[in-house]
Every structure is written in structure tokens, then in C-alpha cells.
Design goal:
single chain; mainly alpha; 19 helices
Length: 437
Amino acid sequence: MLGVIGLVGGLVILTILVMRGVNLLIAAPLSALFVGVLNGIPLFSQLATGKEMDFVTSYMDGFSGFVTSWYLMFLTGAIFGKVMEDSGAAESVSHWIIKKIGMKRAVLAIVLACGVLTYGGVSLFVVAFAVYPMAVNLFKESDFPRRFIPATLALGSTTFTMTSAGSPEIQNWIPIPYLHTSPYAGWTVSIITALFMLVAGYLWLMHMIKKAKRKGEYFISRTGDQMEDRNKLPNPFLSMIPLLIVLLVSFFLHDTLEQSALIVALTSGIIATWLLNKSYFKDFWKAVGKGTEGALIALGNTSAVVGFGGVAKVTPAFNDAIDYVTNLPGSPLITGAFAVMVIAGLTGSSSGGQSIALPILAPHYLDMGVNADAMHRTISMSSGTLDSLPHGGYTVTTIRSIAGETHKDAYGAFGAMTVIVPLVAVILAIGLFMLGL
């Protein structure tokens, strides 16, 4: 019982500290320490016996493992976003989009831009880096409160594209070897739920923005936005070429290089931006430096949260929780979705939720004769719900590191888009599968 209190209490402490604006590099290890102490985990390796895991090793394995896996992708993604901003390419694309679809649809433009890149295989974190400069420009032109930018980026990245049929994102690919399915599993239901998330999310987000505007909120510029008027901007169609290059390179190299394709794609985008917009740069290498600084901050914050998950995963309470949620009675689609949601919430990771649950759930449910395609789509979608609680890696990176907002200001809308909308979509999907679609 004490271990469960430690696990739940650690999450509560982390959430409270994050919402209060405490630096994650402090909040995450402190919360993880609370979890470890109440679960009887030795503090240092010298105090552990046999194969027993200790707090420091568990935390740093999670922290360093994320850095190893994502550093170059964070780096190239952040630099790509900065050079697009410094050259004026992001602003040029923003103006063109506004001219074509109207100022009132600026939020939709951002959502669709994120959706195209995400469905093209660009990492969720990278999409946020790359599209943020354009989002700032569009929100400025529309005079929308900038605290809604993280929710807008997330709606286009982590909902209707991340877990939909055919998506190259890892959340759609993890179930394949366990359930012997394809990336297009449950595609008919996936189309319906994707449209639901896009339409419902967009309408709800616009309602929140308009409500804030009526209360007197507006866009507030910040030092470093680099949105001062320019005498001349790059051609918008040439400015779109680097985005298309990132999309195409990642798409064609995905099967060969998998996640490493993103590094090549984003590097190609950086080079293309430089070649096409040489005369428009204010200071190319300064932009590269700023992007590098942003990448390190974002990577450190996210790794700190992943380290918390690394400690949680080695506790007896976590293993007990896994056993409980994976052995619940009832419809396999419902219990499977619930299990993945809970684990994703505990670890703050959608891919973590699947990776832990599927080895346990898949053989059991397949032996029961469950529709593998339906299970694939349900589990994939459910992983993208509670992973976006305040302590989630993507949540922290997007709100704090990329957008420079506080959880207090931005998480309300962000949570609505990334937790509530996908959760309703999961319920819809389960209902449709049960009806035989």
C-alpha cells in the first residue's frame, strides 16, 4: 500500500510542481525520489544487492536513454524551425496562408500544417519546433492570445494524425509485431475518428479562443519573436519547398532508416532553407546557435520527465498496477484501451504505454480470437490520451520549452485537445468496432 501511495503521490507532486512553474530538472527528480523512497528502492548502486535497481541508476537510465535516442532529432528540428524563422520563410508562408484561407481560419492553417508534417513522418517534437514560428506569426496577425498556441500545435500533431491508420508515427507501428497487423489496421473506423478529432477539436479550440478574446485577451509580443516588419519577404512558394523536402525525404527514407530518416530530412530542410533564402537571412549562424540552445533546453526538460518514468517502472507498485489493469474482466477492446491509457499516464509516454502493455495483452487477446485490426487501432488511439497529462514529455516540451508558456495559462486548452478529445474518440472507435465496422 505504501508503494502505491508513493507512485500516485509522486505523480501528484510532479503535476503540482509543474503547474506551479518549478523547473523540471528539479521537479522531476524530486518527485521520482518520493516514488523511490516509498517503494523501498536503494538510493545508490552501492546500497543495492544483486540485480536490485537503485534510484540514481534507474533515473539516469531513463534520462540518458532519451537523450541518446532523440538528441539529433531535437537539434535538427529546433535549428530547422529557427532558420525558417530567421530567413522570413515562416512569415512568408504565414502571410500566404492568411491571404488564401482568411484570417479567421489561421488556427485551422496551423492545425493542418502540423497534420501534414506528422502524417508525413516528421516527429511530433520536431513538428512543434518547425511550425511554431509560423504559429506565432499567424496568431500575431489574428491577434489571438498566444497561450493557445501549444493546444493548436498539439491538435494538429497528437490527435487525428498520430494514431490514425497509415500514420508513420511510432504510435501506429508498435502494435504491428505483436498483433500481426498492418499500419492501415481498422482504417474505416480510423477515418471516422480522425475526422471527429479534427472537427470537434477545432470547433472547441476556436470557442475557447473567441471566449478569451471577448474577455479582453490579445496577442502579446515577446523579445526574440523576430516578427518586426521586413521590407521584403521570400517567395511563399519557395519558402514551402523546405517543408516539402522534410516531408518527402522522411516519407521515402522511413522504411530504410526508420526514425533516423528524420535527421536526414531535417538536415535537408535546413540546407534547402539556406540555399533558397541566402539573401533574406539576418544572421544564419546566430539562428543555428539559438536553435541549438532551444533544443538543449527542450531535451533536458523532456529527459527529466522520462527519468521519472524510469524510476516508476522499476517499483513493485508499478508492476502491481500493470498486473491489475491488464487482467481486468470485460471486453478486450475496453480493457486493452484502459490498460494502455493507465500505463501511458504513469510513464508520461504513449509509446511507453504500448511497449509495456502489448507483450502482455497481445498473446492473451489473440488466443481469445479478438479482431486484431480493431485491437491495433484501439490500443494505438488510447495511447494518445493520458500520455498528455501535465507531466507528459510532449506536454512539457511544447508548453514550456517551445512556446515559453506556463502550465497554468496553457494547459487547460492543451489538455482539452490532447486528453479529452482523443478519449472521446477512443470511446467512439470502440463503439464502432463493436457494431461490426
